[in-house]
Amino acid sequence: MSWIAEALSATATTSPESAQQAIGYPSLFLLVLFGALVPVIPTGALVSSAAVVAFHQTAPFALVLVFVTASLAAFLGDVALYWLGRRGMGSKNGSRWLEAIRARAPEERLEQAQAKLADHGVAVLVLSRLVPAGRIPVMLACLMAEWPIRRFARGNAPACLAWAVTYQLIGILGGSLFPEPWEGVVAAVALTVVISVVPSLWKRVRAAG
Fold first, then answer.
1. CA–CA dist 153, 82 (Å, integer)
2. In sequence order, what are the residues at sequence separation of 6 or more whose Cβ sits closer than 8 angstroms to the Cβ of residue 102?
């Protein structure tokens, strides 16, 4: 399933679905994994786009494979980043990974994450994956609370499953509304952008008021 090629070319598929799948699933896995480690890739939009293309395919279990690929990659990426963060916490000079996590966790958001983590525990991890820019502050709060990696992994597993389901549903919605895959991809990406932007805009409106 070469959903990347479909999204970029906005044309009908020109290669067999088996060949597309051989390229598409590994690409999705690597991009989501890398996006979890270096949070600059819009991984939610990638999953939604992949779900749109899978929705229009005749291959059985295409949507299931997108879900499994995305959730597994997100989980492994999160656990790897947490492990690197723990190494940085235990290191005398820290690490660039820990500094990167800290740089993406403003003091105010970190304090909120620490308070919620103390009150609700693992449940906060699930919500952090669904709230735009919520994952990193909660991860840093877990690091500062000295959670063992096993405890973090147990809480992060359902978080990644919920995240993959949410963005896949956005893709399915986009795919069901439009006859052409590229139209659904555009709609899904636009919706994920709106979801990521609205909370920050709402905060600014409230602060201005």
1. 9
2. 140
Provide the pLDDT confidence category of residue 7 given band limits of 50, 70 and 90.
very low
Question: How confident is the model at residue 102, as a pLDDT?
Answer: 82
Residue pair 40/32 in contact by the 8 Å Cβ criterion: no
Angle at 192 between CA 188 and CA 197, to 5 degrees: 150
Candidate from 33-42, 47-56, 184-193, 197-206 with smallest mean pLDDT? 197-206
Give dist(CA 68, CA 159) in Å, integer.
Answer: 13
Please tell me what DSSP assigns to residue 204: H
Q: Which amino acid is at 153?
A: A
Q: What's the average model confidence in pLDDT over 89-94?
A: 66
**Six token digits for residue 207:** 């602060």
Residue found under tokens 């840093």 = 140
Q: Are 52 and 39 in contact (CB under 8 A)?
A: no
Q: How many C-alpha atoms does 53 have within 13 Å on its Cβ side?
A: 28
- Spell out the alpha helix ranges (H) of the chain: 3-9, 17-37, 43-55, 62-90, 96-103, 107-120, 123-130, 135-144, 149-177, 181-208
CA 10 to chain centre: 24
Question: What percent of the chain stands above pLDDT 90?
Answer: 28
Rg (CA), the chain: 18
Residue with tokens 């979890």: 36
pLDDT at 194: 65
